[in-house]
Write a structure and sequence with these properties.
alpha/beta, 6-stranded parallel beta sheet, 23 helices, about 35% helix
């Protein structure tokens, strides 16, 4: 039977069990949208901007474990996806992005809204192709879904010229077998695992370092069991937080430039660092030459190129995290590390992460979220809000965190929360954002309103681009250039001291929320935190925006200054040297 390319596109989505499509129409994709008309098996979501669209597909994918799928038109529709494609690919999120394209006879002729999106996205995706022949369409789509799911997940881009969408051809779509993360080459080799576990078992000061790969492979329970069976403490990257419940006795904290004192010291003093599912980026290592200086490093990762890329591994295993952890359990036994664990607990007691002062602090806001939402998906933006969330939120099996780790994309929080709510309609979704990040994709409030999504958006408003301002305060002599969000042209050019005379904030977030049809609440005192969160939780058909007015110069501490080793931290503005 002959069908159009657009009809085959819809058939392919249904064969791939796509139930949700984040899509924004345009001239070079209109045939695809026409083929979707009246489809009852695919929920087509219309966001308000293509970047919001791809972040929503990302949040949907991270929170459900399914492939996120999006569709846009050519030209600016396609290029508006690029930031979201890079965001998802850096964090190994499975997405398939379809873009419309000018007809094949116009490609390369500077036609209206023509860009070579496949070439543009090659460096920030796993797979990118422009379909040039109708007979190649089915295979290209199948390959895209395979690429997105298999091995280390990531993003696939399929560019569809208009004539390919309209051309008639075969209706055959390849049969789908049990593919993806079951590929034979990602299973763990028992011999290698045994050697790795021998290193661990002979250590006196071992530690597990858990990264986002443990979440990608859905290996949290297995990781917790391995820690409990061996008694070995666990530190996490930001992307790995929640692999062990935050309250677990063996959980130490996050490592990195804003890691806890205990976690950074644990890595600095260990003799075996057993890392699973992390690429050791610069945000977690500090000065690489002094990272875990006395330790043997066991590195388990699904991606061979990650091994020894940033930190040299003494022993490497290329495998899926879940497969590797399950294999480790076969050799796991209780280890005599009581004295080491006691030392770590002493570090935690002596140097806890605490925000001091009588004002409403981000810590108190996060503790309010912990108290009100026992089960939730929490999406953060990027900046201080993200870091406070990863420091103070109690994450566990029923409370997941979605955040842009590798690329650090401001504007991620709201659309990711929308995607998470669409994918998990019965689960509370909370967005933690800053006043800067809130305004980068604020138009997606309309999406949340029209789809009746009662997400809770918590704005930590300090009137600054806070993370950069903090660096300006600590390392640039308080030269607050281009970070004050209350700045007016009439302000003193060299102002670096916020005060009562500062202009009012623009916009008024409460009024703006209400103009969209959302609920708006402003909280300026600690006593209002729980009441606002409870009210938002019980609002069932519209989003709630809660603006928390926090100290304008609150800082994220500890901090490891650029070029320092992890053990060389600043705590409460003082330098603590090992």
């Amino acid at each position: 039977m002959k069908i159009t390319g657009a009809e085959l596109f819809v058939k392919a989505l249904k064969k791939e069990k796509v139930d949700t499509l984040f899509a924004y129409p345009g001239g070079q994709a209109i045939d695809l949208f026409d083929a979707l008309y009246g489809e009852e098996d695919i929920n087509v979501i219309l966001p308000r901007h293509e970047q919001g669209l791809v972040h929503a597909a990302d949040g949907y994918a991270r929170s459900t474990g399914k492939v996120g799928v999006c569709l846009v038109t050519s030209g600016p529709g396609a290029t508006n996806l690029v930031t979201g494609i890079a965001t998802a690919n850096y964090d190994s999120v499975p997405l398939v992005c379809f873009t419309g394209q000018v007809p094949t006879n116009l490609i390369g002729k500077d036609a209206f809204q023509e860009v070579n999106i496949a070439e543009i996205t090659k460096t920030v995706s796993k797979y990118a192709v422009t379909v040039r022949k109708r007979e190649d369409l089915a295979g290209a789509i199948r390959n895209a879904f395979l690429a997105a799911k298999s091995g280390k997940p990531g993003v696939a881009v399929v560019d569809l010229p208009k004539d390919i969408q309209q051309e008639y051809g075969s209706d055959v779509y390849p049969e789908i077998t049990d593919d993806g993360r079951g590929d034979p080459d990602i299973f763990a080799d028992n011999g290698q695992i045994k050697q790795a576990m021998n290193l661990l078992c002979n250590a006196q000061r071992p530690v597990f370092l858990v990264g986002g790969g443990v979440f990608i492979s859905r290996a949290q329970r297995a990781m917790q069991l391995l820690a409990e069976r061996t008694g070995v403490p666990v530190v996490t990257t930001i992307m790995g937080k929640g692999a062990l419940p935050a309250a677990h006795d063996l959980y130490v904290g996050n490592i990195g430039i804003h890691g806890s004192y205990a976690a950074n010291m644990t890595v600095s003093k260990c003799d075996v660092l057993f890392a699973v599912g992390t690429r050791f980026n610069d945000r977690i290592t500090g000065r690489t030459q002094q990272f875990a200086p006395g330790a043997k490093l066991v590195h388990i990762d699904i991606e061979p190129s990650n091994i020894s890329k940033n930190i040299a591994a003494d022993f490497a295993v290329v495998a899926d995290a879940k497969a590797a952890i399950r294999a480790c359990l076969e050799f796991a036994q209780p280890l005599a590390v009581g004295e080491w664990v006691h030392q770590i607990q002493e570090w935690k007691r002596t140097y806890p992460i605490v925000m001091k002062g009588d004002k409403m602090t981000p810590q108190k806001i996060m503790q309010g979220i912990n108290q009100v939402f026992d089960k939730a998906v929490i999406a953060t933006d990027v900046g201080q809000n993200q870091l406070w969330a990863t420091q103070f939120l109690d994450l566990h099996e029923k409370k997941k965190l979605l955040t842009s780790g590798g690329l650090g994309t401001m504007g991620y929080g709201i659309p990711a929360g929308i995607g998470a709510k669409i994918g998990n309609p019965e689960t509370n979704v909370v967005v933690v954002t800053g006043d800067g990040g809130m305004q980068m994709n604020i138009q997606e409030l309309a999406t949340a309103v029209v789809y009746e999504l009662p997400i809770v958006i918590c704005i930590l408003n300090n009137g600054y681009l806070g993370n950069v301002r903090q660096w300006q305060e600590l390392f640039f002599d308080r030269r607050y250039q281009s970070t004050c969000m209350r700045y007016r042209k009439s302000c003193f050019a060299k102002c670096n001291t916020p005060g009562q005379s500062c202009p009012p904030y623009t916009p008024d977030f409460v009024k703006l929320a209400e103009s969209y049809g959302a609920k708006g609440i402003r909280v300026s005192d600690e006593s209002g935190i729980l009441a606002a969160l409870k009210m938002a939780k019980h609002t069932k058909t519209v989003p709630t925006v809660i603006e928390f007015l926090i100290d304008r110069e609150a800082n994220v501490m500890p901090i490891v200054p650029a070029g320092n080793a992890l053990c060389d931290m600043m705590l409460e503005q003082e330098q603590f040297m090992d």
